[in-house]
Amino acid sequence: MLALPLRLGAHWPAVQKPLISTSTRWFVFPYPRNVSLNGNSPRDHFDRNVSRIPANSTSITGKTNDFVSVSLPKDSPLFGLEDLLVSFILGKKRATEVSHLVWKSVVQKGDTVIDATCGNGHDTLAMLKMVADESCKGSVYGLDVQEAALQKTSSLLEESVGPSEKELIKLFSKCHSKMDEVLPKDTSVRLVAFNLGYLPGGDKTIITQSETTLKALEVAKSIMVPGGLISIVVYVGHPGGWEELKTIRDFISKLSVEKWICYEFQTVDRSWSPILIFLFKKC
Ligand SMILES: C[S@@+](CC[C@H](N)C(=O)[O-])C[C@H]1O[C@@H](n2cnc3c(N)ncnc32)[C@H](O)[C@@H]1O
Q1: CATH 3.40.50.150 region(s) of the chain?
Q2: What is the pTM of this model?
Q3: pLDDT of residue 42
């Protein structure tokens, strides 16, 4: 039997005990780390708000004893996406695939969104498909500090979308800490996405840095519309990756629990696997 233990995320070291005992693999189930606990322990809160199905029941894949299924509270911005998130935690779905589906649950046609790290352009293209409507009102602002990345993004868009959709995209050779400078005054943004690290297949020395990532997160926070999302994929397998993650966690720890709901997901048995972070601004 493959019964997977469930434990709370890294933000509460004191309660990082398996909630369902022993097994062959570990994974972290996501949990809103800044949720108000109303005086109860995180464990009490978890028990009240996250229902668990015994590990030996039929799983969401239809197989028995595969993994533990859970459901988030109905008012969670991730409600309904639990199976997808568990698949990520189990290493069955890629970080980008999961983030795109989470973005889809937030982004509406006609929205303004920002790709803070264009890279090869896959995220920019996914965002464009989400915002583009028939009246061509949506906007995607893409930033990267690397010309090679912006060229790759342009080429991908060139071969993937028509001229009217392309009009909705504006690319900038600029650090994401200055993303507000490229927006028209008083623009509200529904999504800012960071896919940190270096350009895959490119120059590995050009890499996101804690200091500018932090500045960019502050700016993203200030332009975010209620109901919007800051989405971050963090890679810790390169030098500076852990430091960047720590900086991001510090930033999150200062967000108001009245205004933000934050989640962090990781496949724990693969310590270098990407970490997914979603920061939802409450309506
Ligand atoms: C992992 S890649 C992004 C992948 C991309 N989103 C995609 O879909 O292919 C990270 C990118 O961040 C860029 N980058 C590094 N520092 C940056 C900064 N300060 N501002 C904006 N982009 C930056 C790198 O040049 C690199 O292209």
Answers
A1: 94-283
A2: 0.82
A3: 38
